Amino acid sequence: MQTTKLNTQSILPLTCSRSGTCCFGKTVMLNPWELLRFSKEKKITSREFRDLYCDFGGIQLRFNGKPDKKGQNACSQYIDSIGCSVHLGRPLACRLYPLGRQIQFNKAHYIYEGDTFPCLTDCSEVLELPKLSVGEYLKGQKAGPFEKAQDEYLIIMQNIADIAFELLLDSGLAASGETKTLTVWREIGNEFPELLAKRIGEEWLDCLMLPVINEDTENPITFAQKHNDLILLKAQEEFGSLQTFQELHEASVIMMAVALHLARGLGANKKEISEHWIETAKSHGAKE
Ligand code: SF4
């Protein structure tokens, strides 16, 4: 499928009619701050929102509503004839649609796939609306804080993976000639999200998606940084005094699983990232 890269000046038929035809049959991934935004809008806790409306421990919004004419299920937040019930709390994927976002060399690029915008074929009202530049569209969608959250969580993903690297490379585990840790990292890269969530277990899943942070939850950067500290603290408490290679192996696997589960929640290619991290570990002496 053709992918077109855009900059913020590109003029496209981007005005949304909010008729909601884009709320059927999609995959909407979530980061922890987006889960929080949803729950605030819904006036329930993040845990309640996750348990009622998300899959795989909270990284994916559930689409189990009434199907459209094509048989595609509506988003769990979609109300027939009204549209999105949590419009102010909707996540980045919904604010960007039909665009996607890629980070390359620390710069965001906006992309779309295919030859025509789905909005033009699925929402005839859009044809009557004025065209906007990508920048104007993103401003209108108030995407800024959600983009910041996404960028912060990409950093956290790398920080979590760094713990997995330390447990493998700095502990003597890799130097011992052990090979099974990278084998399991590879398995995790290919693992279905339900299996990965099971492998991670409830405690770490909650730490990843339901951090207990009470102050400044409106600010995605502060929130994500406090979340990062909580994750590092938990890792330090649990893995700070491991004794055996088996324990180090298991800890490294858990941290890699958490990093890759977050990667999926950020819409990143989990398999590619895991392969990149395996090659990096090998270049530092680990064996598979
Ligand atoms: S969160 Fe709202 S905008 Fe996004 S898919 Fe669901 S109903 Fe549509």
Mind explaining what this structure looks like?
This protein has 288 residues and is mainly alpha-helical. It folds into two domains: 3-28 and 63-142, no CATH class; 145-283, no CATH class. Helix content is 50%, strand content 10%. The longest helix is centred in the middle third of the chain and has 27 residues, at 144-170. Bound molecules: iron/sulfur cluster. Iron/sulfur cluster is lined by residues 23, 28, 75, 77-78, 84, 86, 90, 94.
Mean pLDDT across residues = 91
Residues in β-strands, percent: 5-15%
Tally of DSSP helical segments: 12
Count of strand segments: 9
- Please indicate the count of domains: 2
Helix-strand category: mainly alpha
| Biggest sheet strand line-up | 1-8-7
Helix amount: 40-55%
The major pleated sheet works out as: 3 strands, antiparallel
Name every ligand kind in the structure. Answer: iron/sulfur cluster
Radius of gyration: 20 Å
End-to-end distance: 35 Å
Shape: globular
Helix-strand pattern = EEHHEEEEHEEHEHHHHHHHH
In the predicted model, the low-confidence regions spanning at least 5 consecutive residues are none
Task: Outline the secondary-structure elements.
Blueprint: E1 3-6, E2 11-12, H1 32-42, H2 46-53, E3 54-55, E4 60-61, E5 78-79, E6 83-84, H3 92-96, E7 100-104, E8 107-113, H4 118-122, E9 132-133, H5 134-140, H6 144-170, H7 180-190, H8 193-200, H9 202-209, H10 220-239, H11 245-265, H12 270-283
Antiparallel strand pairs: 1-8, 2-9, 3-4, 5-6, 7-8
Bound molecules: iron/sulfur cluster.
Iron/sulfur cluster (SF4) binds next to loops.
